[in-house]
From TrEMBL:
InterPro entries noted in UniProt: TPR-like_helical_dom_sf (IPR011990), TTC38 (IPR033891)
Gene3D superfamilies: Tetratricopeptide repeat domain (1.25.40.10)
Naturally occurring in which organism (per UniProt): Callorhinchus milii (Ghost shark)
Source organism, top-level taxon: Eukaryota
Family per similarity comment: Belongs to the TTC38 family.
Keywords for this protein: Repeat, TPR repeat
Entry-linked SUPFAM superfamilies: TPR-like
Protein name: Tetratricopeptide repeat protein 38
TM spans (from-to): none
Length: 481
């Protein structure tokens, strides 16, 4: 029995080995029928799915844009084609149906087609889930994708979109368990099998099973060395264990395997830079920043978030990055009123504050206040009042030197910040912000709180060089033993 390479797509596997069997029939045979008469549309759907799970813009497949064009020409009314095209756009969280009429029209057309075309129940559920996601109802979208996976556990599109949505919801157990539930139904003979390892590993690392997470990710890399998500998961393991030297060694050794996965490469370089920041090697982090793929070119929201996060961390460490903020804001200003994710809002705000752009800062806050008062089922908008606005206001207070007020805003919600999404490593920025503010506060209580927070941090992440620097800083500023 021939086993397909795990980085290859369904269409590559079947076309190569079974030329007599068209791709349309291949999808039927694995229990995931696609309602189109176009074999080309099926091939392009599969090519897009392969690029989605591999975080690549694979020119050998025609690239994402090329595949989208070919799919739409082959069958412009292919419902699942509309689902994956819109899904790719929406899951990137850089565009919103509330602000982008072109995207809103595309989603409406997808829904309308699902009502006029003869499609199967699984495909209809896909449309419903994506419609919910577009409206900001992420929990309901995940419920529908999970419903698909009960009957179709090998539906990678449902699995991947749910995986990413749980990440945006800050639900690490669901990230882990959504993969655990379907793993027994997969075999190495099923294309994309190897990518499940990285996805499962990420859920494990986010729920603090570091040893198992590393083991599973390495199993994924043994199947497919180019799996950037498995590399990313191991980078998280080293970050959470405070092992910067091991992290640096691993990222350097594997760089050639993942650097061309351009949808995730910048994020992996961000992890690499975090190792340098942990060690206090700020120039090395900045050099990596300048050399790595730039969000100025990609305009990807993940790249924007990573760039903002790294510069903000360096700034808290006392490094002057003013010129870089002024460059970054040219991209981030476009997202001042998005409010797709509170997580994104907080990160673009960092760039406005870094560039000292008061006008755009006020635009973000005022528009966030507006959506916080808007009724409806948009999950992120519902969080704006209790989480989004306090987090953003805390960063504004910190930028203005009002450190006590920063602590007063952040400390009461520190255990709820997980709900804005992102990873433990990404959200650690807010832990650091609270500690820096407490150290600088004039309140004696806050100064004692800083010491308590650092003891807590050392217990969870022993031997962290960054934590030790902050402990020394606290002692020096307040003459504490």
């Amino acid at each position: 029995k021939v086993v397909p390479p795990h980085h290859k797509s369904m269409s590559t596997y079947y076309v190569t080995l079974c030329n007599a069997l068209i791709v349309y029939q291949a999808w039927q045979d694995v229990g995931l029928p696609l309602s189109t008469t176009s074999n080309e549309a099926c091939k392009m759907y599969d090519a897009l799915l392969t690029q989605l799970v591999s975080f690549s813009n694979d020119q050998s497949l025609g690239g994402i844009e090329g595949c989208i064009s070919r799919l739409q020409v082959a069958d412009p009314d292919f419902v699942m084609g509309q689902v994956i095209v819109n899904g790719l756009e929406l899951i990137g969280t850089a565009r919103s149906v509330f602000l982008d009429e072109e995207l809103n029209s595309a989603v409406k057309r997808m829904v309308d087609l699902s009502k006029t075309q003869v499609i199967c129940g699984r495909e209809l559920l896909h449309v419903q889930a994506l419609e919910m996601f577009a409206k900001g109802s992420f929990p309901k979208a995940c419920e529908i994708w999970e419903k698909i996976l009960v009957d179709h556990p090998t539906d990678m599109l449902a699995l991947k979109l749910a995986h990413d949505s749980y990440f945006y919801l800050g639900h690490p157990q669901q990230i882990r368990d959504s993969i655990a539930r379907v793993l027994p139904h997969w075999t190495p003979q099923i294309p994309h099998y190897g990518f499940l390892k990285g996805m499962y590993s990420f859920g494990l690392v986010e729920t603090n099973f570091y040893d198992l997470a590393e083991k599973v990710a390495k199993e994924g890399l043994a199947l497919n060395p180019n799996d950037a998500w498995s590399v990313h998961s191991i980078a998280h393991v080293h970050e959470m264990r405070a092992e910067p030297d091991s992290g640096l060694k691993f990222m350097k050794q594997t760089e050639n395997d993942w650097k061309d996965c351009d949808l995730l490469a910048c994020h992996n370089y961000w992890h690499w830079a975090l190792c340098h920041i942990e060690k206090g090697e700020y120039e090395a982090a900045l050099t990596l920043y300048d050399m790595s793929p730039s969000c100025m070119k990609s305009a990807s929201m993940l790249d924007i978030v990573d760039t903002s996060s790294m510069l903000y961390r360096l700034q808290m460490e006392g490094i002057n990055v003013d010129s870089r903020w002024k460059e970054l804001i040219r991209v981030t200003k476009l997202h001042a009123k998005d409010h797709i994710l509170i997580f994104n809002d907080a990160h673009v705000l960092m760039s406005f504050l870094g560039a000292k752009d008061v006008e755009t800062t006020n635009q973000l806050i005022s528009s966030l206040q507006e959506v916080a008062q808007t009724p409806g089922e948009n999950y992120q908008h519902r969080m704006a009042q209790d989480l989004g606005l306090p987090i953003c206001q805390a960063m504004i207070e910190f930028a203005n030197g009002n450190y006590s007020q920063t602590v007063n805003l952040l400390n009461p919600i520190r255990y709820q910040i997980q709900n804005i999404g992102g990873s433990n490593a990404q959200r650690d920025l807010f832990n650091q912000l609270l500690i820096h503010a407490a150290i600088r506060s004039e309140s004696r209580f806050h100064q004692k709180l800083a010491r308590c927070l650092l003891v807590e941090r050392e217990a969870f992440r022993p031997n962290s060089l960054l934590t030790q620097r902050l402990i020394r800083k606290t002692a020096a500023v307040h003459n504490m033993d």
